[in-house]
């Protein structure tokens, strides 16, 4: 007769066989609750608007056997110039970026609150673009502050120092949707 005991804290299953022999198996804690989606099945796509960089689009996408599926679309901006080689001012260079982390209570010197950190990238001219995020203007706790970097005032706030910017309600919606559907591991920038 086999008796199975599971410990939720350690995710170890111990099976006691007839005669007292014990077998143990470690299982990943993630198996206790199903993951929302397979790893790598979601990605972000930033489509630059050549006429108005503060009216571009960020998409949460799902890979599919046919055309990839748009899960959500958000208005977004990037930079204050279309020159992707201008550090801290130009919009992002085209290409693929790695999503390094996401946080809901980020407390950087300039950026606070909900953020998605993306990898560095060289522009076609060779300039390294670093300190790149998808973010909004908010306080560390996700609220609205009294000063410009922590307060969303309107369409002019889609301008950035080279990052991708969303309205506070949109980045919160992106986080909620990604929490349910699966977090993207890549960002693709196109025009």
Automatic annotation (TrEMBL):
The keyword Amino-acid biosynthesis does not apply. Coiled coil: none annotated. It comes from the Bacteria. Pathway: Cell wall biogenesis; peptidoglycan biosynthesis. One of its GO terms (molecular function) is transferase activity. The keyword Transferase applies. It holds the Pfam family YkuD. The active site is at 135 (proton donor/acceptor), 163 (nucleophile). GO terms for biological process: cell wall organization; peptidoglycan biosynthetic process; regulation of cell shape. Residues 1-32 form the signal peptide. Residues 47-190 form the L,D-TPase catalytic domain. Keywords: Cell shape, Cell wall biogenesis/degradation, Peptidoglycan synthesis, Signal, Transferase. This is L,D-transpeptidase family protein. It comes from Streptomyces typhae.
């Amino acid at each position: 007769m086999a008796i199975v005991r599971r410990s939720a804290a350690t995710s170890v299953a111990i099976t006691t066989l007839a005669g007292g022999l014990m077998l143990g198996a470690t299982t990943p804690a993630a198996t206790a609750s199903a993951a929302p989606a397979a790893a790598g099945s979601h990605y972000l796509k930033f489509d630059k608007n050549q006429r108005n960089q503060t009216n571009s689009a960020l998409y949460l996408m799902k890979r599919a056997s046919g055309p990839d599926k748009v899960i959500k679309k958000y208005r977004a901006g990037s930079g204050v110039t279309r020159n992707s080689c201008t550090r801290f001012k130009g919009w992002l260079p085209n290409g693929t970026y790695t999503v390094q982390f996401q946080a809901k209570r980020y407390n950087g010197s300039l950026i606070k609150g909900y953020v998605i950190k993306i990898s560095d990238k060289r522009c076609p001219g060779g300039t390294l673009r670093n300190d790149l995020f998808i973010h909004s203007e908010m306080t560390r706790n996700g609220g609205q502050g009294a000063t410009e970097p922590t307060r969303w005032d309107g369409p002019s706030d889609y301008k950035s120092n080279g990052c991708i910017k969303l309205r506070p309600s949109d980045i919160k919606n992106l986080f909620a949707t990604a929490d349910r559907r699966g977090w993207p591991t890549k960002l693709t920038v196109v025009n």
